[in-house]
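Records of this kind hold a single protein each, on a pair of labelled lines. With that in mind, the following record should read easily:
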Amino acid sequence: MTLTEKYPHLLSENPDGSLNLFVDHHMLSTFRLCEAKFAIEHMQNLRVKGLRAWSLEFGIWLHSAFERYYKLQQSGALASSQLEATVPLLTTWSQECMAEWDAKNMDWFASSEAGTYNNKKSYTLGGREGALALLLEYAVFNKDFNKTVIATEVGFGRGKEVPLGFVSVEHWGCPEVENYKGSFWNQVHCYLSGRADLVLQNGAKVGPLDFKTTAYFDGKEHEDFEVHEGITGYIYAIDKVRPELKCRNGWIEHISIASPKDGNKRFKQTLITKTEEQLEDYRQRNLRTCSKLLDVLNGSTPDWNTSVCTNIYHAKCPHHILHRSPTRDYVHIIANSYEKREAWNPETL
């Protein structure tokens, strides 16, 4: 089995024998956080049985809801300055969003089965009623929308739209396969994958908008994204996909999960601006990560970051059950506690 056959969701081969590597921000940041976590989740495509994460599932649901909203905005259906005139459309929109909420069984996160961490997140939002209230508040917040929607759902990846560069490797093949006779790739072309939900224009500034949630606003939300690979990657990607836009900007839409009780805003925007030099630094930084990632794909043992085993995103790492055990028990633990999942595909999320 060649590496492209073993990891078809990550690698493809060109006619000249060189390779292509496709990675997104989630994969790259997971690898930087802990190589062992990356290997389990994105090489073996394994997850702990029954594991559900509020932050991931709520984020996907919310992105889908706002994507629907901005498609209406782009179509001109919400152009009326009178909110009352758009009520039927917004009612249908919110009903579709809540139908998706039900289909995903998001109320599960409030159950005893979900655990304390997930319960707290669901309680902070206010469950299903809180989710609906958040949508309607967002519609009111945007009634005076003064930006132009340039595009929605801008996907990039397998089309090689966003190159990061190439990594030279010596005799890179498939050493775990006896008498392997395939190509030894000396060059691996690396590409960024992903999907920008929204590209906006506000005056002379054009760029992607990314939604980010937080439990409560503390007045320092903007500081969390002044240095952030996610929004920087979107700016870099839009500049490659739509070079005529000369994209150097992006926006973070901050969303408070808890509804403020003091009359303060629930939604805020932060403008992020990057220079050409900063985007080049981003490219080189992520290309270095790709080089290390390729070594692991080619058989190097992935390192553990033991400093996050008991505290990763304010919770115990889901693979703690595996890594606390002797290596000889791994096969048994994986067979009993893990399940195969579909490979992560950022272009379809």
